[in-house]
Amino acid sequence: MCSVPQGQAGRPSKALTFAQAEAVLKGAEGTSMHAYIVLALLTGARTEELCALTWDHVFLKGRPDMDPPQPPHIAVWRSVRRTGGTKTRKSRRTLALPARCVEALWQQFGDQGWDRLAADDKWEEHGLVFSSAVGKPLDAANVRRAFRAALKDVDGVDEAEWTPRELRHSFVSLLSDRGVPLEEISRLVGHSGTAVTEEVYRKQIRPVIQTGAVVMDGIFGADPRKP
After folding, report:
1. Which of 67, 91, 117, 185 has its Cα between 20 and 30 A from that of 211?
2. Residue 94 has what DSSP assignment?
3. Which CATH homologous superfamily contains domain 18-220?
4. 75 in helix, strand or coil?
């Protein structure tokens, strides 16, 4: 399984702007990292979760026959951690897939099929969504190199300054910028509570005081009696 390196102490976190995120999604098209980048940015899944994601936990057609119907989704129940720890109940979650994710995963499924044919008897079947050209689990260092290679020609983004984990930071930032409640963001990223989300992503979450002021201005506006 994919090994996850320890983060660099004191490294400041950052997030892509909306314009940068759009540029990254477009620039990654046609690369081996396209589906990985789309999923990380649009679902907020962790690096170790994507490395462990298997096809039997991917439901690209959903369950339209159910009541209520289930949209396309992934079950994020597995994780690969350097410490060997297992995921908590809170961090196990089922995430609906945006349309771009569904399209990217269908493409990934097809591309992996061609890899399997090309590898012939060298193929190692692990059922992984993201694997090497011969089916082996990805190494985190290789993921990072492939990620930066995919960003090489993206305008407005210096690939050397970004890592895969910052796609998750960008997911949080983009949701927060659009007014998604902290409680909902916390559930989506698999945190045990909002305090964890606020601590880990304090630079990406809009301050509550600022948000409250903006909302109240929208409700009441300026005092009409004031010139």
Report:
1. 91
2. E
3. Intergrase catalytic core (1.10.443.10)
4. strand
Q: What is the pLDDT of residues 88-144, one digit of tens each?
A: 554 577 888 888 889 999 999 999 999 999 999 999 999 999 999 999 999 888 899
> Catalytic one among 73, 93, 168, 169?
168
- Specify the amino acid at residue 168: R
Q: CA-CA distance, 104 to 28, in Å (whole number)? A: 11
Q: Is 191 an annotated catalytic residue?
A: yes
201 is catalytic: yes
Reply yes or no on whether 61 is catalytic.
Answer: no
Catalytic residue among 34, 36, 46, 73: 46
Amino acid at 1: M
Number of C-beta neighbours around residue 121 at 10 A: 5
SS3 88: coil
Query: What are the sequence ranges of the domains in the chain?
Result: 18-220
Region 34-62: mean pLDDT is: 90
Q: Are 42 and 21 in contact (CB under 8 A)?
A: no
Answer for the pair 92, 77: CB distance below 8 angstroms, yes or no.
Answer: yes
Calpha distance 111→114 (Å, rounded): 5
Q: Which two tokens stand for residue 28?
A: 């990654």
Token pair 């963001």 in the structure block, residue: 185
Q: Give the phi and the psi of residue 181 in degrees, each rounded to 5.
A: -60, 145
Radius of gyration (Cα) for the chain, nearest Å? 19
Whether 34 is a known active-site residue: answer no
Cβ neighbourhood burial of 172 (10 Å; 0-12, 13-18, 19+): buried
